[in-house]
TrEMBL record:
Chief place of localization: cytoplasm
Gene Ontology biological process terms, A to Z: 'de novo' cotranslational protein folding; cell division; protein transport; protein unfolding
Keyword Cell division: yes
Catalyses which reaction(s): [protein]-peptidylproline (omega=180) = [protein]-peptidylproline (omega=0)
One GO cellular component term: cytoplasm
Subcellular location: Cytoplasm
NCBIfam families: tig
Alphabetized Pfam families for the sequence: FKBP_C, Trigger_C, Trigger_N
PANTHER family per the UniProt record, alphabetical: TRIGGER FACTOR CHAPERONE AND PEPTIDYL-PROLYL CIS/TRANS ISOMERASE, TRIGGER FACTOR-LIKE PROTEIN TIG, CHLOROPLASTIC
Name of the protein: Trigger factor
EC number(s) from the headed UniProt entry: 5.2.1.8
Residue span(s) of domain PPIase FKBP-type: 163-245
Gene name per UniProt: tig
Amino acid sequence: MQVTETLNDGLKRGYTITLPAAELDAKVQEKLVEAQPEVAMKGFRKGKVPLSLLKKQFGPRVLGEAMQESIDGALSNHLEESGDRPAMQPEVKMANDDWKEGDDVEVTVSYEKLPEIPEADFSDVEIERLKVVADDAAIDEALGNLAETAQNFEDKDGAAEEGDQVVIDFLGKIDGEAFEGGAAEDYPLVLGSNSFIPGFEDGLKGVKAGEEKNVEVNFPEDYQAQNLAGKSAVFECKVKAVKAPQKAEIDDELAKKFGAEDLASLKSQIAERLEAEYSGASRAVAKRKLLDILDEKVSFDLPPSLVEAEAKQIAHQLYHEEHPEDHGHDHGEIEPTDEHNKLAERRVKLGLLLAEIGQKAEIQVTDQELTQAILNQARQYRGQERQFFEFVQQNPQMRQQIQAPIFEDKVIDHILEQAKVEEKEVSKEDLQKAVEALDDEA
């Protein structure tokens, strides 16, 4: 077996691997001898089939296996000896397309290797971490929002307005004929909730309890029920009650509605939740600042293939974000822009850097951490949690997608432990502006 270098340009590597015919034949013979004791054939006892007959019947398949194993072994040995880590799967091609049994096998191998990443000293990294205290004003605001969600409706005199609840019986008709699903009794409808088709709720503004009114509407062209889409309808409505919203009192009773023992306990829970939200937002801001510093601090060559693949993925993702109506993948090639390429370079660079730092620090994601993350995601699929969990367990790529951000966060924490982190107390508004700036810079 001979390995000859044909390309050494930056991170690009090329080699020719030559497998002499004699070595290949010996490998085939070895595999046939190994299999001989287990082979039974008509006219021969098990293990007594002549090698010549075995070669005639199984030779082509064994030859293919021997060739693949030899080439894979040669490449594996080369990577181990050279220390190269391919950025992507090496490309392996037969060099002699007219190869026939008895000829030497010659293949070409090409790949881009991962770069040597320089050591980075984080002791001089300075990060300002924003801190927001959940003050009384923020807690009161949260309490007010809870009170609104727990509001009741009470009968009122006068006409129905935006935000009022009307209790109605209704019957929908198209061309004078009632249609399926177009009727209900004692239906509580909050005007302005947009829970009915456009025009229906507006048509009930100004009605009073005891009145009857016909509301004319047009079903949207894209209405889910195709038999109604784009058609005009009349809803015969009987108004049984008009009710005004009454915000719930902020007291112990409100607290009990949300599972707390009393108002003081509810305030404490709200404070903890707010502190957790502020802390998460603050960490996101600090993480972005740290990544910006690392991007400037460390420099090394990037594998073009990884950058190109990442740029295409970014372009594809942004296309679908801008065209949510396009659910397919038949939109043709999406050419990455300079902006996409620049972002791809940053992502690849930081990804390789964080992976290297994590590997050298022996940072690992534990089975418990991964399982907890999978369970957290499974909760998004109500009623199908078990199926989702089993799907992830059987899908290595999905597990890797869930594990990657956990690993990244642990590496970030490792770096922050070595950096100089100074807390700065700011207002909730200042923190919000810092978070919004993250989206603007993304």
